[in-house]
Amino acid sequence: MSYDFLFDLALIFLSTKLLGILTRRVNMPQVVGALLAGLVLGPAVLNILHETEFITNLSEIGVIVLMFTAGLETSIKDLKKCGLASSVIAIIGVIVPLIGGAVLGHFSSVGGKSLMENIFIGVVLTATSVSITVETLKEMGKLNTKVANTILGAAIIDDVLGIVILTIVSSLGNTSGESVNVAVILLKVFLFFVFAGVVGFIFSKLFSMWFDNSKKDLRRYVIVAFVFCLLLSFAAEEYFGVADITGAFLAGLILSGTKESHYISARFETLSYLFLSPIFFASVGINATIGSMNSALIIFTILLVIIAVLSKIVGCYFGARLCKFNNREGIQIGTGMVSRGEVALIVANKGKALGLVNDVLFAPIIIMVVITTIIAPILLKLSFKEKNPVVEENSNFTPETIDNGIDPYDGSENK
Amino acid sequence: MSYDFLFDLALIFLSTKLLGILTRRVNMPQVVGALLAGLVLGPAVLNILHETEFITNLSEIGVIVLMFTAGLETSIKDLKKCGLASSVIAIIGVIVPLIGGAVLGHFSSVGGKSLMENIFIGVVLTATSVSITVETLKEMGKLNTKVANTILGAAIIDDVLGIVILTIVSSLGNTSGESVNVAVILLKVFLFFVFAGVVGFIFSKLFSMWFDNSKKDLRRYVIVAFVFCLLLSFAAEEYFGVADITGAFLAGLILSGTKESHYISARFETLSYLFLSPIFFASVGINATIGSMNSALIIFTILLVIIAVLSKIVGCYFGARLCKFNNREGIQIGTGMVSRGEVALIVANKGKALGLVNDVLFAPIIIMVVITTIIAPILLKLSFKEKNPVVEENSNFTPETIDNGIDPYDGSENK
């Protein structure tokens, strides 16, 4: 057996940490450093690290655990409060980029050859990847705010809308013979939330009962919680065609009510910063393989990035304003939705499979994903800036950092 | 991408936990339950779980982290004390099984066709896998005892002796044309320990200095420690032909002197029980694919198992007695060395590659490995029995369990 994976991991942990510390020095979230680490070590620059099945799977578990802990630390009550707002924001935040992308595709020389292809460029822009935002909000200790809950809610709905739109567009512009039935998929999405709700209700009840009966060993609860998270994530992808991270988030949300949710999330914090999340964030960067580009493509890329960022911010900003958020909050929510991350890549791959995304458009899309993913946390941090100068001092004050009596600074590096 | 790995992990975590709890109920170490879980779910019985690169790599990291924490929790001073004893025990504990295996091979009808092949059966029996013993001792809260240190020391020397013998036998009985130079390999083994010593000395000094200068963030120390562990494990395998777990153990040993070694090992405890070690122990069971066997082979297998267990116990027992250990301790040390685990499988594979191990002997060897691995912790626990009836009550009282103010029972399930 080859032992290179040991070296790869060492390299990932070291580089993400070092660059993370560096980016913190210049007051940027560590996540940015981690992403850059992957980008630099990956095929895009030094070409030392490559995507392996091992890394891919681990990064998948990384993002699942990330969303699971986010769910654990979210209060269902607060989330309900933001339900309507989140929906409005998600919908407008999807429509604006959809149009923006389609228009760009239509007028650009390298755009799609057909209307559907142009619309699909818009579809790619609709996807929101909340994981990096979650990480950033966590780092800033803002995860349990009204704004954060709204963003999380909107991102979940956005995820669903993304699936719906992808499904509709795919079924309409299907050039690959692969048949897709809109109604069936919509039903599946609906059924998933019903399923998660029912299973979740039963499980959380049993879990609490079990908990009260024997305090004998806390570790087993952590593991059972993990199993529940993994199974719900798996079921989401496998049986309902919903993103696994949505399943993971719901799993966390379901357990967030239980007594020991803090103890559990603290354990996953450790698993996350010590092992999984560095791998996830690095792999996002590692995925960015960029071929040679001509001037036309470069211009298209620049425009794509600008539209990706602005359309999301503007769309969500208006959505937020409609829902009585003040100007500042509107901007925070808008920037919180900018990051595209892995979701856009998944959509793009799906489009490629359906013959709706031209290969030449892949490099621009990847660059768009990487840039939005890197600037999202920066913008988000700026949008929270003034009011909280000492924000990173006592950020991410997890139960673990409390339990262990470690000085708050420990929490400030959630990687 | 396929999401089956999520289901596989869920299955591994759930089954190892449930069977672990079950085995504890009947006063057996949880490790046994975890091993059985893998065996039952693997190709040997239900054939639900299969070895994937993902699982293999994770289980490798699992055993590395296991040995790393073992090293972190070992006191160099105590280990030095046991240095001579360990050497004597290791040497006699290697010679006896070597002869035992060779004799079995010589007289059995299914034994090797040549003298070298018979000797190689003995070579397979020499290997000691200490990881399960470490886990069991940890579970019993006996890791920091004179006996445990002697076992650890002996296992390390045993590992080296194993490499040496494997090398000599391979080079003598080499039928594959693959050339092996004994002197070179011996030199490499020697150089590795020199290398580890020098690098370790420098690193631990720098590490402590860094630590004293900024207490700002404890997490970064944990990650840097992990990187050091991974690199030393990688270097051991890649450049010196030494087992990676030996490198990992030394890495832990090197850092065991530093001030925050307890904080660090507590973090790895969490990573271990929550994610990595269930995968490792399950995979040992999953690896046991057993073909059809005739009566002669079955008899051979039974004899192989008996000789494997007795030769190691007897050899190490005499070694221990020679070194002034009392009768009870002698038995404890002997049983502590019984487990063969992955090491024997590695040796067997090497032998196969060299044409020294007949394919028909693979099933017996695997069965021998699984059985020794399963009964080792049981015997070990029995050997510690009488004197400490409440042994599992406050076992494995890690800093984490203290820091978090969790009741001691939490520690009792180190899986």
Write structural notes for this entry.
2 copies of one chain form a homodimer. Chain A is mainly alpha-helical. Chain A has a single domain, classed as Na+/H+ antiporter like fold, CATH 1.20.1530. In chain A, 73% of the residues lie in helices and 0% in strands. The first copy, chain A, has 17 helices and no strands. In chain A, α3 crosses α7 and α9 packs parallel to α11. The radius of gyration of chain A is 21 Å and the shape is globular. The two termini of chain A are 30 Å apart. The C terminus of chain A is likely disordered.
CATH topology of chain A: Na+/H+ antiporter like fold
- Number of structurally distinct domains of chain A: 1
Distance between the termini of chain A: 30 Å
Structural classification of chain A: mainly alpha
